[in-house]
Write a structure and sequence with these properties.
Layout (H helix, E strand, L loop, with lengths): L4 H16 L5 H9 L20 E2 L5 E2 L2 H11 L6 E5 L5 H8 L3 E6 L2 H13 L5 E4 L12 E6 L8 H5 L1 E12 L4 E10 L2 E10 L13
Parallel strand pairs: 3-4, 3-6, 4-5, 6-7
Antiparallel strand pairs: 1-2, 7-8, 8-9
Helix pairs in contact: 1-2
Bound molecules: S-adenosyl-L-homocysteine.
């Protein structure tokens, strides 16, 4: 797997552009400067890997736009050792960023194909998240509570199990809305029965499927 000077140069420029767009978390920016995004997409798209846009991956899914990855990750305020659940492994890129930030990452993907592919590239890059193929819309009860939960697919509403699997003081970041347009939500668990919900900018993600996802 080659990470050439050209890739590194383009990646550095991309991260500079994220700084200009207001991303300020230094640990996140360092992780984005390091993780080779081009290795998470097919070779034919190599030239576009360091443009700030989403790209297609298998199963009609997408690797999120770098700005979106940065936006969601900034909201999470990741600290070393945080137990983080990601729903929607997809290419594995967002997972790699979380691992690079020294979180203890758990990630779930519904498509077996993507799960296997992501497992391969993450292992090659020496990242060791705990991975599962299945329905992430119900969370991952046996590993709860999580300090942080991140959903990288559009949710019709905030799935109840995800709220309940947050540690007290924990944060959940997820796009909520219709299949066409969502608002980023930042949910903070204040106590056993109290969650604060902030609604932020608009985005467009691929839909979450499964028990608490969209029914098509
Ligand atoms: N974080 C990914 C983005 C992938 S797009 C990346 O960095 O590449 C969202 C992913 O969510 C898709 O791969 C889709 O298959 C997956 N997904 C959708 N519904 C899901 C569910 N219920 N459980 C787990 N994964 C799901």
């Amino acid at each position: 797997m080659i990470d050439s000077f050209k890739h590194k140069g383009l990646r550095s420029r991309l991260v500079d552009s994220l700084v200009e767009k207001g991303i300020a978390d230094e640990k996140l920016l360092a992780a984005m400067r390091k993780v080779p995004r081009h290795l998470f997409i097919e070779n034919a798209l190599d030239d576009a890997a360091y443009e700030d846009r989403p790209l297609p991956i298998a199963e009609n899914q997408t690797i999120s736009q770098p700005y979106t990855v940065a936006y969601q990750t900034s909201l999470l305020q990741i600290k070393k050792g945080h137990k983080v659940l990601e729903i929607g492994t997809g290419s594995g890129y967002q997972c790699a960023i979380l691992c690079e930030m020294q979180a203890k990452v758990f990630t779930i993907e519904t498509h077996r194909n993507l799960y296997i592919q992501a497992q391969r590239v993450l292992a090659e890059l020496d990242y060791a998240p705990t991975m599962r193929c299945g329905d992430g819309s119900i969370g991952w009860e046996e590993h709860a509570a999580f300090d942080r939960i991140l959903v990288t697919a559009a949710c019709p509403s905030i799935p109840d199990p995800l709220k309940k699997q947050l540690a007290i003081g924990g944060k959940l970041v997820l796009p909520v809305g219709t299949a066409d347009m969502q608002e980023m939500c930042l949910v903070t668990r204040k106590s056993g029965q109290e969650w604060e919900i902030k609604r932020l900018d608009k985005f467009r993600f691929v839909p979450l499927t499964g028990k608490n996802g969209f029914k098509f």
